[in-house]
Amino acid sequence: MNALIERIRRDASYLGNGIIKVDSFLNHQVDALLMGAIGREFAQRFEALGVGAVSRVLTAEVSGIPPALATAGVLGIPMVYARKHESATLSGDYFQAETVSRTRGNRVQLRVDTRFLAPLDRVLIIDDFLATGLTLNALVRIVQQSGASLAGIGCVIEKPAEQGRRNIGEITAPVLSLARLGWDNEQVVVLD
Amino acid sequence: MNALIERIRRDASYLGNGIIKVDSFLNHQVDALLMGAIGREFAQRFEALGVGAVSRVLTAEVSGIPPALATAGVLGIPMVYARKHESATLSGDYFQAETVSRTRGNRVQLRVDTRFLAPLDRVLIIDDFLATGLTLNALVRIVQQSGASLAGIGCVIEKPAEQGRRNIGEITAPVLSLARLGWDNEQVVVLD
């Protein structure tokens, strides 16, 4: 996806310890037009794979929300973000799975109200990064708890060095990423 | 804004203590098409007020992100969300202001990297709720710290009973809300 790759080459930086900083266009500051293009790209790629009708886009707060919302807007379906923090409005029953924050290192409980995922749903998981795969695995487990079916997983940036695909879980749905990044000599490297 | 008001009448519920639950379309689960309509509505209303060119949309994570991203997409400008949590990627210098969470009650530091707001910027603040006004006031102070000018403030839902407009600060920019809500007998009431 050229617009994304160009932006990465121009603005991504390497912070060490496997952390790639993309806060000028993907998180913290978000390029709203690029998000629209990312949403269209995910919709087209999953359609080309024949995943069929999808009824929900699922992500985890915070930085998954922009690409997930853009994708849901293109597909014309609701976007659900798993919550990481307690809230006065998060009451009743929820699906829950634990992950570990890649950038903070702490354990986090992801929760989704049981009203928002049901057995008849077909769910597309969208997130900003495929790194360790632990957050995606938690989202997959939440989909499994709900009885919904998984249509696919799409991530904006994959870091293959962290081998996250091994941790996502035993799924048959396709896993896509729009850019695969590594690092060398303290520089971000676009892998393909 | 009819689509929003209809959705509120159908799906909003009152939790007591001034908390209105809108987690089936505005936060947690987000109606992506409604967000697009909200973005267009904010863009049109601020244009009708003659606010002129805007270079950034500013909000606070988490629930401000969907309406802010939708508005930035319509305007074709970046969206910046103030961060509430420490992050390995939030380094260097930032503007900072304290607020108090309306739904959790705790003090929260909002931070925006100094790279993303500059004196030549003209900033539109967008958030989901205008309740106590404390988060909007923190965002206004961040704009002031940066030297940027404030073009306007737009909120999806205003709760006039909490008199938040008094707390936003001394500003001359227009403050808009798309729906004004109260409560009576444990029911959400649309005020106008």
Walk me through what this model shows.
2 copies of one chain form a homodimer. Chain A is of the alpha/beta class. Chain A is built from 4 helices and 11 strands. Chain A has helices spanning 2-11, 32-48, 65-75, 134-146; strands spanning 13-16, 19-21, 29-30, 56-60, 79-82, 94-100, 107-113, 122-130, 149-158, 175-184, 187-190. In chain A, strands 5-4-8-9-10-11 form a 6-stranded mixed sheet, sandwiched between helices. Chain A has a two-stranded antiparallel ribbon with strand order 1-2. Chain A has a two-stranded antiparallel sheet with strand order 6-7. In chain A, α2 packs across α3. The mean pLDDT of chain A is 95. Chains A and B meet through β3, α2, α3 and β5 of A and β3, α2, α3 and β5 of B. β5 of chain A pairs antiparallel with β3 of chain B, so a sheet runs across the interface.
Quick overview:
The structure is a homodimer of 192-residue chains. Chain A is built from four helices and eleven strands; from the N terminus they run αβββαβαββββαβββ. With 192 residues, chain A is an alpha/beta fold.
**What would you call the quaternary organization?**
homodimer
Residue ranges of chain A: pLDDT <50 for 5 or more in a row? none
Tell me, rounded to a whole number, the average pLDDT of chain A: 95
Beta-strand content of chain A: 25-35%
Rg of chain A, rounded, reads: 16 Å
Shape of chain A: globular
Assign a percent range to the helix content of chain A: 25-40%
Helices and strands of chain A, in N-to-C order? HEEEHEHEEEEHEEE
Strand order of the largest sheet of chain A: 5-4-8-9-10-11
Euclidean distance between termini CA atoms of chain A: 11 Å
Please identify the structural class of chain A as seen in this structure: alpha/beta
Largest sheet of chain A: 6 strands, mixed
